[in-house]
Amino acid sequence: MKRDFSAVKLCVLVSSVVAERPPWRLAAEAVAGGADCIQLREKNITDRRLLETARACRDACGEAIFIVNDRPDIAVLSEADGVHVGQDDLQVDQVRRIVGDELLIGVSVSRVEQVAKAERAGADYLGAGCIFPTATKSVAVMGLEFLREAGLAANGPVLAIGGINVENASQAVSAGASGVAVSSAVIAARDVRDAARLIRAAVVRALRSK
Asked: Is 205 a catalytic residue?
């Protein structure tokens, strides 16, 4: 059965490149701190190693939703809950043919017109960004106004991504995000569990005040 993404408040993107620690350990700590979604973003490793890592992360997530970045095949083989794709990856209908009807499909959007297109194609949630400057990826910063427009245009969940941290997470939610997706602000922290807890708390407070 397809998981319900609408309640996700904090998605943590785990990567050994950013944190130089095993992704499954990062996932376990982030979930313990309150992350209700984990997305594995691992590049430049073999497919076999990626599958092993995805399976380990799946086990570490417990009841949290587990998403694999870019790779619908690895998502299926690791028994993930879904896959997240970008604008240059396979299209949603192509991904659906691989993963079937039971897995979630998330799509990255950086322009408002991409929102309706992705949802019409069957995306279950959107990742809107980059909202704030980030060192994790070299992409254009779209800002809070784009997030407001994306939130108004979307019918389903919209996660703000890009430069999100404990100081600005509430701004992203106030601008229209249903939750936030975070990478280095959690997994590069000295205490991953505490960093996740603080950001989730900021998101919950902002949602309650809307």
From this structure: no
Q: Is 43 a catalytic residue?
A: no
pLDDT digits (tens, 9 = 90+) for 32-77: 999 999 999 998 899 999 999 999 999 999 999 999 999 999 999 9
Q: What is the pTM of this model?
A: 0.97
Q: For the domain 10-209, what is the CATH code?
A: 3.20.20.70
Residue in 3, 41, 58, 197 annotated catalytic = 41
* Residues forming beta bridges with residue 109, ordered by sequence position: 128
> Is residue 41 among the annotated active site residues?
yes
